[in-house]
Structures are given as structure tokens and as C-alpha cells.
């Protein structure tokens, strides 16, 4: 099944913004509608409450006016007062009918209708005089007061229901806002993943490229621009790998081509030094000595180039127990003249010890560290070689007295062809490959070589093997 992915990074960003803004826009519309409904509901309920309350009060007032008008008519017998009474009675009936539509299902309406029928029968002057002091007027007024109380209670009930509706609407708004917030957050996380995930894939491949590890060959999952960028990283890795192979091939060819003429030069210098072609004076012997020393230096440089090239190829090897004693004896004999000329004393481990390593690589590490200690060690100083095994693995230290390495140079000295600011002691200038080869060898053994602080020595290199 083909995976669906956005065509471009711009498309991802635009779709993300649109999809995130859509729920927010919907929430704004919903909230505006809810607030509009709430406003209308509040306005209607308040207006209704005011109308009902005023109407109930007006009914009570008109009931009192009906009683007064009828009593004046009974006393004065004026037909104009009777007309006013009839008009008031009609207005009361109309107002009561309107109130009954707004406040229905009230038991007082039945009694009020009976009272109105009684009041309607009092339009005769004689009957009006006979009923002027009737207790039915008090009953009529009491019914109106009771209707007013009922109206106020129902208005209060409407207010309570309105508050409940407002609370429900507020809860609905909060729920909708929470849902939109969660949905927007999920959309933000989704589109963040759609952008960050391929970026992380590309970052991982760049780190693999820097570490010299084969990057992931699978296509980057993301927008087209990032997919193309992932393909470019793969292409760059292939090109770098090709250049690396060309570099190793160049080193092999150059080293091989240099060794043949160097062998001829060394052989010729040896024949001259042995005076097989005739006696030499002191100046000629000095020149022959210079030829021998520089040819040895050139041979050392070529051998280190070959060692560096061999280590860079990451050849497969096996670990064995390598005794340190024979290696240290060979080194002491090899550097005996240099140690004697600088009057340096060497302290070896007191007990025999073996390290789990590959012999050739361990010999390279010891040779380069010991050579470094002899070359940069102080005249009349000391060199300590320590070794041991602990719970974390085996370790080896080569320490010497002499000028300390500045902090700014403690990592740079491990780079190929890099040398520190400290002047090398001796006739031959270093190549800047020794410590680089030593660290490469340590890494190929699965270990670590670093410069550490030591209370006894000025410079101390520590090799840790797992």
C-alpha cells in the first residue's frame, strides 16, 4: 500500500495552519452563537419578568379602583361614575385575560371569574348600595394579592430556570472549548511530527555520515524537499566513500613507490659508511650519517602512513592475551640510545601482566606513546609505564616528566598531521601521526585513549580496554 505524504514542506505548513485554525474558527462561531442566544434569552426573560410583575401589580391596583368607583356610584348615583366603573371593569377583564396567557394554570382565576361576575351584577344602583359594604370586596382584593404573589413566585422560577440554562450553556462552551483545544493540540502534534520526524531522520543520517557509518538507505518519510535532501545525503555518502577509497589507494601506492627508492638510498648510504668504495674523511662521514638518519626518518614516516592506512581500513582481527614484558623490553632496547643521551630513567610495571588485545595494534600504541614520552620528556627526567586490570577492564598508562600540554591542544594533538606548540627534543622532527595512529588503534580495539591528569607526572596518556 502506497503511503500518502504531502508533496512539499510548504504544503505541510499551509495544511497544518488551515486544519489548526478550522476548529478554532468553529469554536469562535459556536461561542458567538451561544452568547447571542444567551443575550436574547436574558433579554426576553427579563422583559417578561418585568411585564408579568407590572401586570400583577396593576391588577391589584385596578381591583382597589373598582371597589372605590363602585362605592362612589352607590353614594352619588351618578351615571358617569357608572360608565367609569364599566370601563374599569372591561380594562380589568382584558388585563386579566392577558395575564392568564402569560401565567396559566393558577387556581385563583376561577375565584376571580366568580368575583367578576358578582361585580358585573352590581351595575344596578339599588344592588350597588346594598352590596357596598360586602366582604366580597375584601375577598376580591385578597385574590388579586394572591395572584400577584403567585406571579412573583413564577417569575422567580423563570429566573432560576434561566440561570440553569446559562450554567448549561456555559458548560457547553467549556466542553466545546476543551474539545477544540485538544483537537488543535493533536493537530499541532501531528504536523509537528510530520515535519520533525523526517528532519530527525536526516539529522541521524548526517551524524552517521560524520561518524563514517553507512546511513540508512530507506527513503525519508516526509515532504518532497526532505525526501530529496535524504537522497542527496546518500549520494554524498557514496561520493565520500569513493574519495576515501581513492585516498587509501593513493596512500598505498605512494608508500609502495617510496619504499623502493628509499631502500636503494639506504643501501648506498650503508656502503659509503662502511667505506667499501674507499676511505672517507670526517666531513664525508658526517654527510653519510645525515643520509642514514634522514633515510630512517623517511622510512618511519612511510611505515606510519601504512599503519594509518591499515587502521583506517578496519580490518577484522581477533583478541589474544598479549604479555607486556616482551613488548616493553623491545621498546627499551630500541630507544636505548635516545634514553641514554637524555639521561631518562624508565619505570616498568613490577609484576608481569597481559592485556586482551591484538598484538600488532597494541605494539603500535605502546611504540607511539613511548616515542612521544622520549621525544618530549625532560632531560634527566623519568618515564612511568603502568598497567592493571579492574572491574571495568584493563588499562595502560604511559607518563613522563616534561612540559605540560596546554588545555587548548589536548584534543587537537590526536588529529592526523597535527602537532602541539611544545618543541620536540631531538634531531628528528615528528610527523604528527603518532598520537593519531595510537588513538585509531585504541578505537579499533574497542578502547579509548585520552590525556589525563596525574599527580606524579606532567604528561600522562591512559589507554582503557574493555
Automatic annotation (TrEMBL):
Record domain Histidine kinase: where: 253-466
Alphabetized GO MF terms: phosphorelay sensor kinase activity
Domain of life: Bacteria
Enzyme Commission designation: 2.7.13.3
Transmembrane segments: 12-30, 173-196
Tagged with keyword Membrane: yes
Alphabetized PROSITE patterns for the sequence: HIS_KIN
InterPro entries in alphabetical order: HATPase_C_sf (IPR036890), HATPase_dom (IPR003594), His_kinase_dom (IPR005467), HisK_dim/P_dom (IPR003661), HisK_dim/P_sf (IPR036097), Sensor_HK_Regulatory (IPR050736), Sig_transdc_His_kin-like_C (IPR004358)
A Pfam entry, by short name: HATPase_c
Catalytic activity: ATP + protein L-histidine = ADP + protein N-phospho-L-histidine
SUPFAM superfamilies: ATPase domain of HSP90 chaperone/DNA topoisomerase II/histidine kinase, Homodimeric domain of signal transducing histidine kinase
Keywords for the protein's UniProt record, in alphabetical order: Kinase, Membrane, Phosphoprotein, Transferase, Transmembrane, Transmembrane helix, Two-component regulatory system
Enzyme class: transferase
Gene3D superfamilies given in the database record: 1.10.287.130, Histidine kinase-like ATPase, C-terminal domain
The protein's name in its UniProt record: histidine kinase
Species: Aeromonas lusitana
Taxonomic lineage: Bacteria, Pseudomonadati, Pseudomonadota, Gammaproteobacteria, Aeromonadales
Amino acid at each position: 500500500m502506497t503511503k500518502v505524504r504531502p508533496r512539499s514542506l510548504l504544503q505541510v505548513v499551509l495544511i497544518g495552519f488551515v486544519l489548526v485554525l478550522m476548529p478554532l474558527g468553529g469554536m469562535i462561531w459556536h461561542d458567538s452563537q451561544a452568547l447571542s442566544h444567551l443575550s436574547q434569552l436574558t433579554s426576553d426573560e427579563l422583559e417578561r419578568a418585568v411585564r408579568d410583575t407590572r401586570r400583577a401589580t396593576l391588577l391589584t391596583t385596578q381591583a382597589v379602583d373598582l371597589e372605590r368607583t363602585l362605592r362612589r356610584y352607590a353614594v352619588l348615583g351618578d351615571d358617569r361614575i357608572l360608565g367609569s366603573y364599566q370601563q374599569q371593569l372591561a380594562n380589568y377583564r382584558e388585563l386579566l385575560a392577558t395575564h392568564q396567557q402569560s401565567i396559566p394554570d393558577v387556581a385563583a382565576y376561577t375565584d376571580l371569574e366568580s368575583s367578576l361576575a358578582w361585580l358585573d351584577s352590581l351595575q344596578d344602583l339599588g344592588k350597588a348600595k346594598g352590596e357596598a359594604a360586602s366582604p366580597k370586596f375584601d375577598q376580591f382584593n385578597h385574590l388579586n394579592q394572591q395572584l400577584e404573589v403567585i406571579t412573583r413566585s413564577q417569575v422567580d422560577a423563570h429566573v432560576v430556570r434561566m440561570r440553569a440554562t446559562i450554567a448549561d450553556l456555559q458548560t457547553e462552551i467549556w466542553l466545546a472549548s476543551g474539545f477544540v483545544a485538544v483537537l488543535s493540540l493533536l493537530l499541532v502534534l501531528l504536523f509537528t511530527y510530520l515535519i520533525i520526524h523526517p528532519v530527525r531522520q536526516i539529522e541521524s543520517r548526517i551524524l552517521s555520515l560524520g561518524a563514517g557509518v553507512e546511513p540508512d538507505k530507506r527513503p525519508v518519510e516526509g515532504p518532497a524537499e526532505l525526501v530529496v535532501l535524504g537522497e542527496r545525503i546518500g549520494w554524498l555518502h557514496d561520493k565520500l566513500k569513493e574519495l576515501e577509497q581513492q585516498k587509501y589507494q593513493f596512500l598505498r601506492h605512494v608508500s609502495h613507490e617510496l619504499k623502493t627508492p628509499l631502500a636503494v638510498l639506504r643501501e648506498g648510504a650503508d656502503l659509503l659508511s662502511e667505506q667499501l668504495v674507499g676511505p672517507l674523511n670526517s666531513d664525508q662521514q658526517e654527510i653519510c650519517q645525515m643520509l642514514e638518519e634522514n633515510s630512517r626518518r623517511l622510512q618511519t614516516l612511510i611505515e606510519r602512513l601504512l599503519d594509518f592506512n591499515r587502521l583506517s581500513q578496519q580490518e577484522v582481527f581477533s583478541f589474544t592475551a598479549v604479555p607486556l614484558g616482551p613488548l616493553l623490553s623491545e621498546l627499551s632496547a630500541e630507544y636505548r640510545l635516545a634514553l641514554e643521551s637524555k639521561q631518562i630513567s624508565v619505570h616498568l610495571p613490577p609484576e608481569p601482566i597481559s592485556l586482551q588485545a591484538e598484538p600488532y595494534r597494541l605494539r603500535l600504541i605502546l611504540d607511539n606513546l613511548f616515542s612521544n614520552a622520549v621525544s618530549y620528556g625532560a632531560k634527566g627526567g623519568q618515564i612511568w609505564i603502568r598497567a592493571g586490570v579492574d572491574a571495568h577492564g584493563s588499562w595502560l598508562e604511559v607518563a613522563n616528566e616534561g612540559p605540560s600540554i596546554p588545555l587548548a591542544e589536548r584534543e587537537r594533538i590526536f588529529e592526523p598531521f597535527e602537532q602541539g606548540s611544545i618543541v620536540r627534543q631531538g634531531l628528528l622532527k615528528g610527523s604528527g601521526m603518532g598520537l593519531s595512529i595510537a588513538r585509531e588503534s585504541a578505537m579499533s580495539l574497542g578502547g579509548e585513549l585520552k590525556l589525563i591528569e596525574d599527580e606524579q607526572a606532567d604528561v600522562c596518556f591512559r589507554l582503557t580496554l574493555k
